[in-house]
Amino acid sequence: MPSTPVIVAADLVKKYGDFAAVDGLSFEVAPGESFGLLGPNGAGKSTTMRMVGAVSTRTSGSLAILGLDPNRSGPEIRSRLGVVPQADNLDNELRVRDNLIVYGRYFGLPLRHLRRRADELLEFAQLADRAGSKVDDLSGGMKRRLTIARALINDPRILLLDEPTTGLDPQARHILWDRLFRLKEQGTTLVLTTHYMDEAEQLCDRLIVVDKGRIMAEGSPAALIREHSTREVLEVRFGSERNAGAAADLEGIGRLEVLPDRVLVYADSGEAALEEVTRRGLQPMTSLVRRSSLEDVFLRLTGRSLIE
Amino acid sequence: MSAPAADPAVLIDPARIRRFGALYVLEHQIRVMRNYRSSIVATAIGTPFIYLFAFGIGIGTLVSANAGRVDGVDYLTFVAPALICMSVVGIAAMEFTYPIMLGFKWNPTFVGMNAAPLSARQIVDGVVLFVALRMAIPAVAYYVVMALFGAAPSAWGAGVVVTSVLAGLAIGTPIMAYAASITEDKGQFAVIGRVIVLPLTLFSGTMFPLEQLPWFLQWIGWLSPVWHGTELGRQLTYGATEPIWLTVIHVGYLVVLAIVGWRLTVRVATRRLDR
Ligand SMILES: Nc1ncnc2c1ncn2[C@@H]1O[C@H](COP(=O)(O)OP(=O)(O)OP(=O)(O)O)[C@@H](O)[C@H]1O
Ligand SMILES: [Mg+2]
Q1: Cβ contact A113–B6 (<8 Å)
Q2: pLDDT tens, A153-176?
């Protein structure tokens, strides 16, 4: 059943002076979909999110959120969005639960409703025991969860998450992913940016790979990997001095990417590639066979790593 | 557990948000203010006692012994409307600087409000309403203490609360527009306090009539919301008299300054939040 997209962006551009931070993005997001923007620092992810969030005026192109134009209906759109910005902006002078209630008031919701809703959301964010804490006393992961809870206070149609787990330790990230996964299962439309390929693989049905404000590729994580990479990757290290030299001897085994600290050999079977490497008499210091990831897709498309 | 299901009974009404948005911001600021209520109450009550005591018993006695009455009343009555106005203006200079920087940058709650449906204009309006309230609370306390000291003999005395808050807005909203525009704190607020607010307070017919200043300094008084506010206050608290055109100028100047600063802040904030 084809459903009307909740976000339609066509040729979206945002310029700061002469510099185009977002340089002609076109994409659509279907209701219930979990859509990702994957890209390195400065790719224009946050800028795109601010335009989709109806707070930043686009320079050109067209944009419709829930069928409305943000230039004309900013507040209406924003009343139906949940926003988790890249930098937390919880009120540090209010307690945890009060942050939710105050935020809910911005949507004109009655206090009676908000008190109950705040408790439910604190439960969901696993912060019920911290309801009376000061925001400053929360860990980074807890603040992130509180920001997500706050973004849900108005039962949004679309939840925008700008780098939801950047800066968190692995355990905190997993807790957060679990919460987001539940939202996704319940049919909340998620739009998220990340520069972690594992996050994109975990959470996104479909994503665009963005670099320098442009779309480099689009598709599901699996399709992108299939299209732009091989099934497996062999990583070999010969020591930082010798990687480049060894690469010459690896010609023909598979497509190569020479990084400062290692050489990547793209092959459908990593084991077979490794056998060939040994057969040629090369002795890498370490070797590792792994499945291709979005990182490889990005490397292929841009010649650069996602995380510098 | 799973995320709580949406509650269909609660509908979000954009028209209501458009109408009441500024009040939601006010509500937020009041909640924050509650953290400081004991210090606010203590200062609101303590300050007038200290100043009125010092000026009434201390300087007032000295002045009365040497000069007799000032503007037809005893010195304390003459100076009290200036003291309340200066006190309120001091609060304006605080509340329209650091908290503005805080909301845009250090703890960017304004950015959060704007990501919710509130517009820059509603945010600014809400903050101005809050600061007006924040000035009015100690102003009321000040007036009550003035009355206790017998320094506000007229029946219209309570009006001094309004004129003082108006003076606070007149000096405060232009400062707010500036505060909303700066992105780095390089000590500008301290400079504003010393180079703008302090002279506008001291050379503005507060402690002594403006006519006593040398003519080449009197223009400071004419520029100063503190002078205009104080002169209005004097009419209300002890029935000082002046030509009606001068009263019109006092009120007009304060109102225009407050509105221009307010509108300017909305412009600056709108541009700043839309990036
Ligand atoms: N308000 C602004 N004024 C000028 N330039 C800006 C502004 N905001 C962003 N930029 C520039 O636009 C480009 C894209 O920025 P953006 O924040 O959208 O990137 P990003 O993909 O979110 O990066 P990150 O992963 O670091 O968050 C950057 O080069 C940035 O310096
Ligand atoms: Mg970003």
Answers
A1: no
A2: 999 999 999 999 988 888 889 988
pLDDT at position A50 = 98
The answer to whether residue B8 sits within a structural domain is no
What percent of chain B shows pLDDT beyond 70?
96
Which tokens sit at A76? 């209406």
Question: Which of A95, A100, A107, A184 to mutate: most B Cβ within 10 Å?
Answer: A107
Which residues in chain A have Cβ-Cβ distances shorter than 8 Å to B116? 78-79, 83, 103, 106-107, 154
Q: Whole-prediction pTM value?
A: 0.92
pLDDT band of A219, cuts 50, 70, 90: very high
Range of the domain at B129: 13-273
Is the alpha carbon torsion for A50, A55, A58, A61 positive or negative? positive
Q: What angle do CA A108, A110, A113 make, to 5 degrees?
A: 125
Q: Residue A238 class from Cβ within 10 Å (0-12 exposed, 13-18 middle, 19+ buried)?
A: buried
Looking at CA atoms only, how far is residue A273 from chain B in angstroms? 45
Enter the DSSP assignment of B212. Answer: G
Question: Element (H or E) spanning B161, and its range?
Answer: helix B159-181
Q: What's the per-residue H, E or C state across chain A?
A: CCCCCCEEEEEEEEEECCEEEEEEEEEEECCCCEEEEECCCCCCHHHHHHHHCCCCCCCEEEEEECCECHHHHHHHHHCCEEEECCCCCCCCCCEHHHHHHHHHHCCCCCHHHHHHHHHHHHHHCCCHHHCCCEHHHCCHHHHHHHHHHHHCCCCCCEEEEECCCCCCCHHHHHHHHHHHHHHHHCCCEEEEEECCHHHHHHHCCEEEEEECCEEEEEECHHHHHHHHCCCEEEEEECCCCCHHHHHHHHCCCCEEEECCCCEEEEECCHHHHHHHHHHCCCCCCEEEEEECCHHHHHHHHHCCCCCC
Would you put residue B205 in left (φ > 0), alpha (ψ -120 to 50) or beta?
Answer: left
B243 in any annotated domain: yes
> Does B235 map to a domain?
yes
Task: Tell me, yes or no, whether B2 lies in a domain.
Answer: no
pLDDT along chain B (275 residues), means of 10: 56 93 98 93 94 84 80 92 96 96 96 98 98 97 95 94 98 97 92 88 84 84 94 96 95 98 98 95
Ligand 1 geometric centre to CA of A46 (Å): 7
| Structural domains of chain A ordered from first start | 7-220 (3.40.50.300), 230-291 (3.30.70)
Which ligand is the nearest neighbour of the Cα of A45? 1
Please give the average per-residue pLDDT across A123-145, as a whole number.
95
- The number of distinct structural domains making up chain B is 1
